[in-house]
Each structure stands twice: as structure tokens, then as C-alpha cells.
Specification:
mainly alpha; 13 helices; about 65% helix; about 0% strand; globular
Amino acid sequence: MILSLAMLTVMMHVAGLSIDPYDADNMPFYVSGVVLLALRFGLRDRPWRHARAVADCAEYYGVFTMLALMGAVASYPVAALTHGFHDAALQRIDALLHFDWLAWYRLVAATPILQTLGLAAYRSIYLTPAILFATFALTGDRVAAHRFLATFWLTAVGTLILYAFMPAIGPFSYLWHQPIAYMPESEQWQHGLIPALRDHSVRVVDLGHLRGIVSAPSFHAAAATLYINAAWRLPRLRWPVLALNAAMLLSTPVEGTHYLIDILLGTIVAVAAIATLHHLMPRSTAHRTSANGVAAPRLPR
């Protein structure tokens, strides 16, 4: 995380961007940070039964929030250093996949219940990790929590690297040229914000109003893949998390204004991150058995 912060600082400098630390819109992040730090260091050694679980959960979600925030901010300097748009190529791939984004959008625009459910599912991207972290904290499984955070970080890095090669304004701006029947959650920021970042007419990144400007790969699709993978080893969460994130994937083309290929690429990036971490850090078990068959002692947490 420290290395990522250093790299982000360099990227912001190269792109001519900055963050105003005194902006009032940053206050929720400051308050949340103070609360999470207080829980992490104030409760960890308290005699209360669930003190350690709450402290661990605060640690996990705090690190997750920092990684997510740095990833969102990093998309701005990455976009500022790109050239052109690749919507024509992305749309051609969708056509080869027989995916009709306009038909999908018209269906959602004509069905209020799909709008409500889709919006709720799309916003659940921050709900599932909270459930996972609470479960890891209550079961004392710090290894699983740290593996998940490492995979999330690796996925974010991979997403940003690929995004640098395929910036796009998204199917909503590229394909829809009629009066807006329904405004998705992601709206239409790419076609205005990305050129403004490139010509340096936007120089300050407002943390309180970060906009999703990454089309391909879709990070919602990547996150859904990570969440399902993390929950698959938790019998009580496996199917609820699968159902919730399947709904998030279905909502992503419209609410996230993504091509189908964006979603496929996001899934591929997440699978690659999972496989890479599994190769670099094979999953450990609670008890290891030595060569002579004697169980090794449990390591202190």
C-alpha cells in the first residue's frame, strides 16, 4: 500500500494533478479514518469478548478503503496520459459476441423495478467486502483477509494497466443519441472528463466527487469475481454472495455503462490476480504436518 501511494504520487505529478487536503468534501474520509484507527488500536487488547474481532474488521475495511480510494484516484492520471478512444473496437467485439447494449438499456429504461434492483445491486460493491471482513474477523482468519486484500490490490493494478491501453467513453455516450430515458448510476462523465484531464483544464481531483471513468476492464466485474472466490470457502456465505454478485454483474452493463467485453476483461483480470497470488502465496492451513507426521504448533496471530 505504501508503494502504491508513492507510485500514485508520481503519477499525479506527471499528469499535473493534485488533491486539495483542505477541501471540505474530504471530511468524511478523515472522520472515517480516525474512527477506524481508534477501533483498530483502541479495542484490540480490550477484555470485551468481541473487541479483537471489531478491531480486526476495522483494520481490514480501512485498508480496503484506502486501496479502493487510491485505485479510483489513480484512474485520473492514467486517463490524463492516454490518447484517443477505443469505443469502435469495443463495440465491434460486442457485436461479434451478439450483445446488444441498446436493447439491454431500453429494457431497463422501460422497467422501473429493474432500475431499482439494478441500482441496489450495482451499489453492493462495498457491501459484500464488509460482510466478508466481518466474517474473517469473527473467525479470526487473518490469513484469508490478507489474501483477499492482496488479490484486490493486484486486480486494481491490473485493471489500471489495461485501461491505459483502451480508454473509452462507454456505450451510453457512444451509442445513445436520443433524449435520455433513464440516467444510469455512472452517468456520462467519460466523454467530458477524460478530454479535460488530457488538456489540463481539470487540475484538482475532488475526493468527494470521484467519477467512474474506467470502461474496460470493468472493475465491478473484477470485484464480483473476487468476492465470489473469497466467499466460496465459506459455506454460509457462498450462495448469498454468489446471488448478490451475479445481480451486480447483470446490472453492470447499464448502471456502469459498460460493454460486454469490459465485463469479460474485468473477470479475466480478477482470475489472473487470483491465480498469480495462489502461485506466489500458496494457501496455508491452520495446522501443518511435518515430514514425520507430527502436527506443527499453531502460529501466534
